[in-house]
Amino acid sequence: MPAVDTGGLITRRHAANGPLLGLETLTRNDHFLEALMARHLFAILDDLTERLAELRAALAPLALIGGAVIAEPIKPASAPRRAKGAASARRRPVSAKRRAAMRVQGRYMSAIRPLSAAQRAQVKKLRAAKGAKAAIALARKLGR
To answer: Which H or E run contains 9?
Structure first.
């Protein structure tokens, strides 16, 4: 029997029983669909990229006739991998001065987050003139 389109899900009529097969039946019986759903996202993207490259290669002669320019193929969407045996860069310890600066920056960011754009501009102007501690005090006052 013919396939029936049910809003994106193509189902088939079962020849013996007659009712449409539901999604549960398809996922239970269709091993291909199960394998496809289990694949990793990057593997799917790599596969699509390879097929797109094959399609571009097949259509290249037609594009030359039509005068269109073919874009360069892009790299597969796999995650970048480090070379085996390459040592990772060690983080240097953070100095007390830098840690204090990061703490002040965090307090400043948390103080200006709830403010409007106009209030943020006002606080930013004060920070440039009088420093972060005065700006944090103003931002907390404006945020109330």
So the answer is: strand 9-12
